[in-house]
Specification:
heterodimer; A: alpha/beta; four-stranded antiparallel beta sheet; 9 helices; globular; B: MetI-like fold
């Protein structure tokens, strides 16, 4: 039996209200357990592609399916339930800085509760343990009650990985997760993501600036230029000519 | 080498300056401002001031209750106004409610409320609910609502949008976003603004009594109309001390919060 793609793009386009093209007719299939790196110039549409997957950005044409279910057509609760299965990591970590590490990690579980329980912040004991387990996986168990802004950049990013893990997602989207980190912490964060991918079988779709990192960690590379998919293949097949083609002649576009 | 060119003559600034000075003179004449007259009455001021400098200490016992009433009014008014202002502020914050019309209309209402002077509100509510502290509480509640509502929504609009995006990506709905991404970022500001409003309300409520809206202002007005400047002096002193203490404590608390 053939495995079904966990993310599937069908002729996906995105045009911004001002007429700028974010994505142009993208077709894409990502299989469970892949570690896919998206590369391209700034503004080529990498971030837009990421945010199209969990519909933080709406697309203007085409259809995106998550695990066989269309997120493009999902409404209300359905959309929230699909999103629950997709963890996301951001360049700027996006933690609530004044809140404790535990509280930040727990917010990954929000999608599993009815609203009234959340208004009172009633997380179950099991979920608190789950959050703590996730923190142990990123080696930050000792920081559980620290305030998020007391942590270094690399640690904050690992907290946000723990938050994504607490969601128990099938997919993790990482939007430039190491762009604001130094080389050493970059390695730490990337190793964590790789381990999550291999040990937990979570599909990882990640945006990276650095081709070198893409080649070290990825199993597959997707090149985006000007909103178009210009390359898609295993890391080994991305030679220097291909890479320079991805990075050439990029005109500024949105996203 | 070319010589440094002369600074161009800023004739606009000069014209503006002249217009302002002429405007000041014209408006002073139009309203019949008379500076010498101001100083003519200065003698009377020193007489009253002398009387105020020898306060009627025996009156202290009578002042305590109305003073407590004033503070009670301030606490109640601040609380009611702030509790109402909180959900309202979320409704008019552009990063929470994206519908331009909703934000526009409710913001307009808030602006209108804020433009009504508190003394006018007090006069209106004394007429509606009668003389007494209830009029004062309602006045302070509305006044607080207008002020704190604006401070609240401005705080909400300055938050880091990152956590909102993150929690949205985790499958959270609107209320959860507010609960976990917005409130933790602004709660300290909210508490600080409420304290600030309380400081202002303690001061304002002393004056409100003047219009019959309860508290120590009623006594102040009575003493003034009886020309009992010794009692006025005492009350001014007591109010001064109380306001100073409340401002100091609340100021320290706010410093600790932010």
């Amino acid at each position: 039996m053939q495995a079904k793609p966990v993310i599937k793009f069908d002729n996906v386009s995105k045009t911004y209200p001002n007429g700028a093209k974010g994505l142009k007719d993208i077709n894409l299939e990502i299989m469970p357990g892949e570690f896919v790196v998206v590369v391209g110039l700034s503004g080529a549409g990498k971030s837009t592609l990421m945010r199209a997957v969990n519909r933080l950005h709406d697309i203007t044409a085409g259809d995106i399916q998550i695990d066989g279910q269309s997120i493009t057509q999902a409404k209300g609760k359905q959309l929230l339930e699909i999103r629950r299965n997709i963890g996301m990591i951001f360049q700027n970590f996006n933690l609530v800085k004044r809140a404790t590490v535990l509280k930040n990690v727990l917010t990954g579980r929000v999608g599993y509760y009815p609203t009234w329980k959340m208004v009172f912040g009633l997380f179950s004991k099991g979920d608190k343990q789950r959050a703590y387990n996730a923190l142990q996986q990123v080696e930050l168990a000792d920081k559980v009650y620290a305030r998020a802004d007391e942590l270094s950049g690399g640690q904050q990013q690992r907290v946000s990985i723990a938050r994504a893990l607490t969601q128990e997602p099938k997919i993790i989207l990482a939007d430039e997760p190491v762009a604001s980190l130094d080389p050493q912490t970059t390695k730490h964060v990337m190793d964590d993501l790789k381990r999550i991918n291999q040990e937990l079988g979570i599909t990882v779709l990640i945006n990276l600036h650095s081709v070198e990192l893409a080649q070290t960690y990825g199993t597959r590379i997707i090149g985006i230029r000007d909103g178009e998919k210009v390359f898609d293949g295993p890391v080994a097949s991305a030679d220097e000519a291909t890479i320079s083609a991805i990075y050439s002649g990029g005109e500024e576009a949105n996203g | 080498m070319a010589e440094l060119p002369k600074k161009p003559f800023a004739w606009q600034k000069w014209v503006l300056g002249v217009v302002m000075v002429v405007g000041l003179i014209i408006s002073a004449q139009a309203t019949g401002t008379n500076l010498p007259m101001f100083f003519q009455n200065f003698g009377q001021f020193t007489i009253i001031f002398q009387q105020m400098l020898s306060p009627d200490w025996s009156y202290t016992a009578y002042v305590v209750d109305p003073l407590i009433e004033t503070i009670k009014m301030a606490i109640l008014g601040t609380t009611i106004g702030s509790v109402l202002a909180f959900p309202y502020a979320l409704l008019v914050a552009r990063n929470i409610v994206t519908n331009r019309w909703v934000v526009g209309i409710f913001r307009f209402i808030l602006n209108v409320i804020r433009t009504i002077p508190d003394l006018l509100l007090a006069a209106i509510f004394v007429a509606i609910v009668g003389i007494g502290p209830v009029a004062g509480v309602i006045t302070l509640a509305i006044f607080t609502f207008g002020m704190v509502g604006k401070l609240f929504y401005e705080a909400v609009e300055t938050i880091d949008e990152g956590p909102i995006e993150a929690i949205k990506a985790a499958g959270a709905g609107k209320l959860e976003i507010i609960r976990f991404a917005v409130i933790p970022q602004v709660s300290n500001y909210f508490v600080s603004y409420v304290l600030y409003a309380f400081e202002i309300n303690v001061r304002a409520s002393t004056v409100l009594g003047y219009l019959g809206a309860g508290g120590i202002g009623v006594f102040l007005q009575r003493a003034l109309s009886q020309f009992r400047y010794d009692r006025v002096g005492l009350m001014v002193l007591v109010i001064f001390v109380v306001v100073l203490v409340i401002d100091y404590v609340s100021g320290k608390l706010r410093e600790a919060l932010i």
